[in-house]
């Protein structure tokens, strides 16, 4: 396990992503990530590349199935070129409802389909670099036409890292087999990472004759912080609500079960069906908050992150707002 790298999330294009990334680099963060919620994950990155010099930059995460792998490849290639090799392509599947009802995209065999996205991207990158002829055939994607007009040509940093988000065992194992990193969900704990996630990633690395050192485990934990007791209490209650929200979804119940809280998850699920949100938060105990979240004053966050995830994860996302308090380099 490498030294723990500290990253930050930065806002989308409407939120001065370039300026935020510039501050992150000044504070000493190792990387910045852009989400894809009410914004496009890729659009901020030309600005980030222009405003920074050394910090790594990536998507956490861009939706994989709403774009053709060829379109993803063109975008990633451009950003790798502009950033001098600092760009990381972070991809995820989202869930069935959002794919079908928000994006009108078919949801079929998401795990094997994500595998083909990663495989075809690697193949297309090799084509762009002049190392292969375009010829990929899978169950979900096929690519066979590339002419000189549409070939962007080689770049100085063609080995674009690919991270995928993973909650279920298939995707976590896939990260170990094919990818450079695993973007772990915030609904996670150091214990679950060490006891469940890392061994599952290792199953994938074993299949591909790789090492666990080849795959960066990137944590994005809930954070409880604030300068005053009142600020920390507000932060704690917000985290409590988020734990209740995610805990109501059966997709995440394995994490609760790992800590002996599966019955709480079932209660949360039942309450969520009636939208009884306040009652849901009341089921999340202080012990649960302390287990899921890193809690510290701003100037102690780095030490708390290292205590929680040092030797377990390779990267951890912490709040940019307090970077000047806990980063000194």
Would you write up a description of this structure?
The two termini are 22 Å apart. The chain is globular. The strands form three sheets. An eight-stranded parallel beta barrel has the order 1-2-3-5-8-9-10-13, surrounded by five helices. Strands 6-7 form a two-stranded antiparallel ribbon. Helix 2 links the parallel strand 2 and strand 3. The longest helix is centred in the middle third of the chain and has 19 residues. The protein contains 14 helices and 13 strands. It folds into two domains: 250 residues, TIM Barrel; 70 residues, no CATH class. It is α/β, with parallel strands linked by helices. Helix content is 45%, strand content 14%. This is TIGR03617 family F420-dependent LLM class oxidoreductase. Its EC number is 1.-.-.-.
């Amino acid at each position: 396990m490498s030294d723990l790298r500290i990253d930050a999330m930065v806002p989308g294009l409407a939120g001065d992503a370039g300026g935020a990334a510039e501050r992150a680099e000044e504070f000493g963060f190792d990387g910045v990530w852009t989400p894809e919620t009410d914004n496009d994950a890729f659009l901020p990155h030309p600005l980030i590349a222009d405003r920074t010099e050394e910090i790594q930059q990536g998507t956490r995460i861009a939706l994989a199935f709403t774009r053709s792998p060829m379109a993803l490849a063109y975008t990633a290639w451009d950003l790798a070129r502009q950033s001098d090799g600092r760009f990381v392509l972070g991809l995820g599947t989202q869930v069935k409802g959002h794919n079908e009802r928000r994006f009108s995209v078919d949801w079929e065999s998401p795990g094997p389909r994500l595998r083909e996205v990663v495989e075809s991207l690697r193949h297309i990158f090799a084509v762009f670099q002049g190392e292969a002829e375009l010829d990929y055939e899978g169950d979900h994607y096929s690519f066979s036409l590339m002419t000189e007009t549409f070939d962007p040509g080689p770049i100085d940093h063609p080995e674009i890292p690919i991270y995928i988000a993973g909650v279920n065992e298939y995707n976590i194992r896939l990260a170990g087999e094919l990818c450079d990193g695993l973007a772990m969900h915030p609904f996670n704990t150091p214990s679950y990472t060490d006891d469940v996630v890392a061994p599952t990633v290792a199953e994938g690395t074993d299949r591909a004759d790789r090492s666990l050192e080849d795959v960066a485990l990137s944590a994005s934990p809930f954070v409880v912080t604030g300068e005053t007791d009142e600020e920390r209490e507000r932060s704690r209650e917000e985290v409590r609500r988020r734990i209740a929200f995610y805990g109501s979804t059966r997709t995440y119940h394995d994490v609760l079960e790992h800590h002996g809280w599966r019955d709480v998850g079932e209660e949360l699920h039942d309450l969520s069906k009636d939208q009884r949100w306040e009652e849901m938060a009341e089921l999340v105990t202080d012990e649960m908050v302390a287990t899921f979240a890193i809690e510290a004053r701003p100037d102690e966050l780095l030490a708390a992150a290292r205590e929680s995830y040092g030797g377990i994860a390779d990267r951890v996302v912490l709040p940019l707002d307090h970077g000047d308090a806990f980063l000194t380099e």
